[in-house]
Amino acid sequence: MIFCPAGRLAGGSRARDVLSLGTIRKIGSLGERGNTILRQKLLILYCRTPDLKSEVGAWSIYDATGKEHHTTGDSETPPYRSVFAAMKDGWRVIQFPQQFPAYPGMELNTAYLRFEYILEKLEEGGENG
Amino acid sequence: MDKQHLLTSVQMASFVADGMLRFDELIPDEINQQAMREIDEERIPRSYEKQGQPLSDLWPDSQGFGAMFRLPQVQGIIHSLIGPDPLYDHHAFHRVGPRHEEGQTWHADAIIDTRQHFDIQLFYYPHDTPREMGGTMFLPGSHLRRIHETDIGRYQNFVGQMPIVCKAGTLAIGHHGIWHCAQPNHTERMRYMFKLRLNPTVRQLLLWNTDDLDSPEIHKALFRNHKWYGNDDRLEYANRIKFWRFLTGNDKFDSNYWLTRIENMPERRVPVGTA
Lengths: 129, 275
What we know:
The complex is a heterodimer of chains A (129) and B (275). With 129 residues, chain A is mostly beta strands. Chain A has 1 helix and 6 strands, in the order ββββαββ. In chain A, strands 1, 2, 3, 4, 5 and 6 form a 6-stranded antiparallel beta sheet that branches. In chain A, a hairpin with a 2-residue loop joins strand 1 (16-20) and strand 2 (23-27). Chain A is elongated. The two termini of chain A are 18 Å apart. The relative contact order of chain A is 0.22. Chain A binds chain B through residues 44, 46-49, 54-61, 69-78, 108-115, and chain B through 101-106, 137, 144-147, 151-152, 154-159, 161, 163, 181, 183-184, 227-232, 235-236, 238-239. Strand 4 (56-63) of chain A pairs antiparallel with strand 5 (157-158) of chain B.
């Protein structure tokens, strides 16, 4: 799959960008430095309401660059107050929660966190393979 | 059962709101030491005992784990929540090795279980558990959510999550639906936690010390918010009201009219022409 993101990538405008299995390989032109792998960092924010400016109540971070390691229970405060605050810091929203009416008879039930936003950044780093 | 060892209505209301209770340093050190010896010398089997047997038949000679759940204070807690003659469901010694850097995935135990009737699980910490040693992370208020086991495994952190950082002899009691996960152990020592699941054999109705059943503190405890709920908070209150009705037998119990309003479907007909 070939993907040319609108966002500016490090390395200059002559670079070709190839997205494959969650990574972007930036192939420099002749005379430039070699291949650079861009990997995904995912930030998942669970908001109070569908409003992107509403408060975050839960969060997860999955960093494929290897720069950060995250696991359950590793922080007490959300990394951002809201999805919108994360967007201002350069995170791109890649998935919005869909909204469905409650199934009949299940209107008062609760289960998973409903307002889940998935955001990404692409950064250099990590090992191949 | 001596009333002094039973839970109060306010404590029961806290259980309804949080899905858990904790009792710090409840178990005497002598029993804690014996319990650690029973682990080290493998005097209590790691494998399950016969499931469904009366708890009273379990480990009659144990000076550690058996003595722990036979303490009058622990018997009072068990009686308040699930009544007399509880059954043994299963037990487990959870061990987290030294320098274990990965937290366990968030989960609820067993399978999706939507009963109003509920099991309890005892989480017993026989030695000091500082934060760097992990402890179990609980999510207060998660017990009424209809999820199956590790279906919640994408989540990492919640506002209001509660690690059990405790001294030896601490006991946490969880509703069967409580979300929890073992935390990393950054120390050089093995960490132990003993878990025991129990089933009720009687209708769970006013089994605790009800002397304070009309206390205004009950309302405060029942309707404590948890910040991670977000917009679901009123739905959680509605489910707590249903739970409190189940535990007290009072089908009219309500707060802020949350359920009364949506249950109001009058059928009384006004005779034609009298309006």
